Amino acid sequence: MADITRRLGWRHLRGAPTAHIRHHRSGKLLHDGPGLSFWFRALTAALSEVPVDDRELAMTFHARTSDFQDVAVQATVTYRISDPALASARLDFSVDPDTGVWRGAPLEQLGTLLTETAQQHALAVLARTPLASALVDGVTAVRERIAEGLGAEPRLPATGIEVVAVRVMAIRPEPEVERALRTPAREQIQQEADKATYERRAVAVERERAIAENELDSQIELARREEQLVDQRGTNARREAEEHAAADGVRAEAEATRTVRLADAEAARSVRLARAEAEGAREVGDARAHAQAAWLRVHSDVDVATLHALTGTRLAENLPNIDSVTISPDVLTGLLSRLGAGAGGGAGAGGGEVGA
What is the pTM of this model? Predict the structure, then answer.
């Protein structure tokens, strides 16, 4: 929309760079171009403002497929006014000289023209296409047909309109039909998901089985190695026992040899000691015999009375110590009788000796 200001009965218009301004006065074109700025009188000026920028026209319309199913088409047409003079001549782009607002609705007229033209070509395509094909490949077919139809429409160049691009976003069936169409796909997706789950579980089971087999193989290998280890330990133990036995045999033999040697030495020492003891005993016996012989020789030369005296002395030396002696009358009488008998015998013996 143009920016118009008032100054003492004059108006000043300042247009945008994307707006083509046409100023007529008394049927003459005074100003023509985009982004203009000029003064004018409101009573004598005829102003038109034609936008020359790209415009987006969103449209939604309903169509019916070959199998009598209703669908909704969402599309967008990008266009521009390539010939502002022709467009202002065919459509009412005039603006109020006081406010700068369009007197009519030219863009709505353009929108209606483009929408009806696009809808006509889209319906022609969808009417020969079943619903399934329309949902799968209908977007491309409808877009191409709309672009081709708008490009071949004679009213658009005659109005100064140029179509820049056509986009079709979606072709949607009715909600009930869409839910019905989604059901098989959902079932298939669910089946594929279940299949993937089963395959994943099968793979997991297979992996668990492989892991279990690996563990079992590892246990078997470990048991085999343990068996080898036990055998090796037994062999080592036997070798160690044999070596210990051999060492014990060597030690026993050495001990026996040493014991024999010690026994021989001890026996020899005992023999030497016995011989020495025998020799000593013999020498002692000889000495005693010589002493006894000498003693006998000495005593043989002594008289009987002296021998008796010596015998009493030796006997007295060997008697125990007697502190006191109690002699009863009976003992005293016996002793006296014995002494008396001894004395008589002695006297008789003495007389015999004397007689001899």
Answer: 0.51
